[in-house]
């Protein structure tokens, strides 16, 4: 076979691997991996004598799963569903399932002074160095990286829009940052810092069941919007 033709065929095939025909080919349910950060001995930041970050993230993750489980086209996997230790690498392994559609890690913020409040959405850059521009493998890597970066930003924007209704206009915006749990993930992924444990008002509403339910609802809405 003509070598150029062969190369072109492989390239076209690779493009279809990266950008599958979303509606007809991916009819199975979208997999959402929700990561309630911390757990077990790793308590995260302290909100009160009784509550730590690990309790808030788990409560919201469970409410989110309950909400999304009602959607026929979405299924949810939690990196932990109880108060236990789960390593970053084990969380990564769950997130890296071949059919993961979105990964979202939940945290509670702290620091930056007592006046800092609101939420923050992080996504990661996925920049892969291109050393040899002619190597189709490198081009493919770049295409995958760009696709997931764009999708992460798109998802982050939807989450920001819906979260603003809970933390009115006090959000701290979108940020790109290297985050351990997001590293090496080839799926759209974000980390959401839901309010500040170091802010009196945020702390109070984060421990409130009604706020936890609103956050879960806003996230469920965002995930449905994203798909
Ligand atoms: Zn945290």
Task: Provide an overview of this structure.
By secondary structure, the protein is of the alpha/beta class. It has one domain (30-226): Aminopeptidase, CATH 3.40.630.40. 43% of the residues lie in helices and 16% in strands. Strands 2-1-3-6-4-5 form a 6-stranded mixed β-sheet, sandwiched between helices. α3 links the parallel β1 (30-36) and β2. α1 (3-18) runs parallel beside α5 (136-163). The N and C termini lie far apart (41 Å). It binds zinc ion. Zinc ion (ZN) binds at residues 37-38, 44, 53, 107. Zinc ion (ZN) is lined by residues 37-38, 44, 53, 107.
Order of helices and strands: HHEHEHEEHEEHH
Low-confidence stretches: 21-26
Name of the top-level CATH class: Alpha Beta
Strand order of the largest sheet: 2-1-3-6-4-5
User: Residue share in helices?
Assistant: 40-55%
**Dominant shape:** globular
Distance between the termini: 41 Å
Mean model confidence by pLDDT: 83
Determine Rg (CA atoms, Å): 19 Å
Topology at a glance:
Layout: H1 3-18, H2 22-25, E1 30-36, H3 53-68, E2 74-78, H4 88-95, E3 100-109, E4 120-123, H5 136-163, E5 174-176, E6 189-196, H6 200-206, H7 209-226
Parallel strand pairs: 1-2, 1-3, 3-6, 4-5
Antiparallel strand pairs: 4-6
Helix pairs in contact: 1-5, 3-7, 5-7
